[in-house]
Amino acid sequence: MISLATLIIVACTPVADKTVGERKMTETTKINYIELPTADLVASKAFYAAAFGWSYVDYGPTYASFTGAGIDGGLDADSDRKPSKNGALVVLYAKDLEAAQMSVEKAGGKTTAPIFSFPGGRRFHFADPSGNELAVWSDLI
After folding, report:
1. Neighbouring residues of 14: CB distance < 8 A, sequence distance ≥ 6
2. Which of 1, 17, 24, 106 has a CA that sits 20 to 30 A from residue 49's CA?
3. This prediction's pTM
4. Superfamily for 6-138?
C-alpha cells in the first residue's frame, strides 16, 4: 500500500541511550527525515510556507527539502509514492489550534476532520493541495 509519508532514517550512528525522567530515550534509529509525495511541488511549497512558515532548499525541479517543521524533510514530486490519506499520519503541534486551522484553510488546505478532543488534547486533520492528510494537535484546551 502506498503510504502518506515515507519515514527515512538518514543517520543511524550508534550513540549511548539516555534517561529522561523515568523514560529511556534512544538516540539511535530515531526518525530523522520525512518525505511527502506531491503532485505539484510549487503549490505544496506555497501551501506549507503560508500555513506554517516552512522554508525550502530546492534540489532540482522535482524536489525541495523543508526546514522549520520541527523535523527536516522534503517534498518529492518525482516519487513512485503518491499523495494519500491512507498511510502514515504526520502530526504537527500548535499552541493555538483554531489559528492553525484558519491558517491551513486560508493557505488552501481542506479540513478533513474538524477539531475534536482526545485524551491529552485536541486536534484536527487536513488535506494539503496534493491530497496528503496530516493533523495538527494541541495540549492546550
Report:
1. 28
2. 1
3. 0.79
4. 2,3-Dihydroxybiphenyl 1,2-Dioxygenase, domain 1 (3.10.180.10)
